[in-house]
Amino acid sequence: MTRRYLDQRLKLPLLRVADALATHGSLLKAAAALGVGQPALTRSLAELEEIAGARLFERHARGVRPTEAGGVMIRLARRVLAELRRADEEFDQVGSPEGGTVAVGVLPVAAVGVLPGALIRLKRRHPAIQVRLQQGRMEELLPQLAAGEVELVVGRLYPPATPDGFRREALWEEPISVLARAGHPILHGAPVTKEALARHELILPTVSQRVGQEIEQLLSLLGLAPAAPLRSSSYGLIREMLLATDCLSVMPRLMMAGDLLRGALRVVPLPIPAPPRPAGLVLPAGPEPSAAAAAFLACLREHLAEIAARGLADMPDADTSAAKADRTRRARKG
Q1: Domain residue extents for the chain
Q2: What is the pLDDT along the chain (334 residues), one digit of tens a residue?
Q3: Architecture (CATH level 2) of domain 95-172+279-333
Q4: Fewest CB within 10 A of the end CB: N or C in the chain?
């Protein structure tokens, strides 16, 4: 077996090269991100591959892609760099027990929905705690959770395609809903029917493929045409259209959590139940969260309890299939 002596030969600048190439997928972009010239980056990559004893990245027309060995080096680099960031944050916390940093991964819907209220509580209660946010899709955030780059992920809980060893905890239900301004005529008088819904113009959010499919599913159940006259990726535009007109929107309801809590927007009662959408936390199976992460989680739970008390999101009383599967796997191992 080849002895690589990684503990003696690997240097931090080389690990940063592996991380930058994986992040940017291009020698030119990685060099710019690291503040070095492309020839210097190429020499560092050659040194790293010589130490590993394997080709780590393959060139293609649009840049570079990691090989299987490259994937090993990237995971190593990100674990080491994440540990160094945490150590840096812990040094900052020395002599300041109320401080610390929590790194949170968040899905887009949760980022505009439940997260702001939780962060407002956290900053009010623990002003010295720093929050580092990483927004992305679940398939992008889980590798970061595995590498320790984030301590937890907040958002919609999707059952994993294969066992991944993470813990999943359902905290709230966030069904796809129809939203309208508080004084909208559809909210007054007779019970809402499919025909009444069809009489109003829709403005729909441009969201991820998964959420988009769930919106289309509810539209189909309601018998509404999926082709809306207006779609937008701007939540600000959608909000203004809802508040100023008789437009309706269809989205995960807590995307507009602030306006729902303030009473400016309302959830339209539907003639059929919307499919369930459990959301919550994805956590590593390892040690307990840091003090800063525990403080963040306490504020998130309090904010969700307020939302639930206002009737805007049910608190799950049953496990998601993902949580059940995770607990079953851990029970078998035990």
Answers
A1: 6-76, 95-172+279-333, 176-267
A2: 677 888 888 899 999 999 999 989 999 999 998 999 999 999 999 999 999 999 999 988 888 999 999 999 998 888 888 788 777 767 766 655 566 889 999 999 999 999 999 999 999 999 989 899 999 999 889 988 888 889 999 999 988 888 888 999 999 998 999 999 999 999 987 899 999 999 999 999 988 888 889 999 999 999 887 665 788 989 899 999 999 999 999 999 999 999 999 999 999 999 998 888 999 999 988 778 888 899 999 999 999 999 999 888 876 654 444 444 444 444 444 4
A3: 3-Layer(aba) Sandwich (3.40)
A4: N
Instruction: From residue 288, give the alpha-carbon distance in Å to each of 89, 152, 292.
Output: 17, 11, 11
Identify the CATH number of the domain defined by range 6-76.
Answer: 1.10.10.10
The CATH number given to 176-267 is: 3.40.190.10
Give the whole-angstrom CA distance, residue 27 versus residue 63.
Answer: 7
pLDDT of residue 144: 86
Task: Write the secondary structure of the chain as one string of H (helix), E (strand) and C (coil).
Answer: CCCCCHHHHCCHHHHHHHHHHHHHCCHHHHHHHHCCCHHHHHHHHHHHHHHHCCCCEEEECCEEEECHHHHHHHHHHHHHHHHHHHHHHHHHHCCCCCCCEEEEEECHHHHHCHHHHHHHHHHHHCCCCEEEEEECCHHHHHHHHHHCCCCEEEEECCCCCCCCCCEEEEEEECCEEEEEECCCHHHCCCCCCHHHHHCCCEEEECCCHHHHHHHHHHHHHCCCCCCCCEEECCHHHHHHHHHHCCCEEEEEHHHHHHHHHHCCEEECCCCCCCCCCEEEEEECCCCCCCHHHHHHHHHHHHHHHHHHHCCCCCCCCCCCHHHHHHHHHHHHHC
Gap between the terminal Cα atoms of the chain: 34
Topology agreement, domain 6-76 and domain 95-172+279-333: no
